[in-house]
Amino acid sequence: MSDSVTHTAGRSRHGTADRLSAVELTVNGRVRRLTVDPRTTLLDALREHLGLNGTKKGCDHGQCGACTVLVNGRRINSCLTLAVMHEGDEVVTIEGLGTPDDLHPMQRAFIERDGFQCGYCTPGQICSAVGMLTEVAADWPSHATEATTTATTAASRIALTDEEIRERMSGNICRCAAYPNIVAAVRSVVEGDAG
Fold first, then answer.
1. 97, 107 contact by CB (below 8 A)
2. pTM above 0.70, yes or no
């Protein structure tokens, strides 16, 4: 490699590293201002910059769901999005859903129904379940949702069958296979039996 190519490559490498971006997020109800490399994922911003280690880094490819958080009320895989893309957004992690003394109903249900085993996937599972219930309340269908005969029927509410819950939670993988208990936990919240 010639000296001019080496010099240009070095300048480019250092120039990118020197360019940081400011981003302001509301995380778990608290405004947080960060200065990050523009390539920093939301997952890494939460874990490495804010110390919120409840959100887990599993596959780092958006396939396992361990990094699921809520952004503006919608569930997302935080490993697939950049922190700078969420300027001004409201982010809720597992730490923001409840406290040890005042658990969110979904957190309580996972404990009561033994919806976790090793616990690694649990934060993402719980955030995903909370986001899923918001989607159901908004009548967003899934692949498993049965088609209604009349779209204008007032009774077009989605029935959360076990099959529907499994389909909606399919983006979250549990290596320990606690799936039946996870479905039971979600069902208990839906039916008002949690807590």
1. yes
2. yes
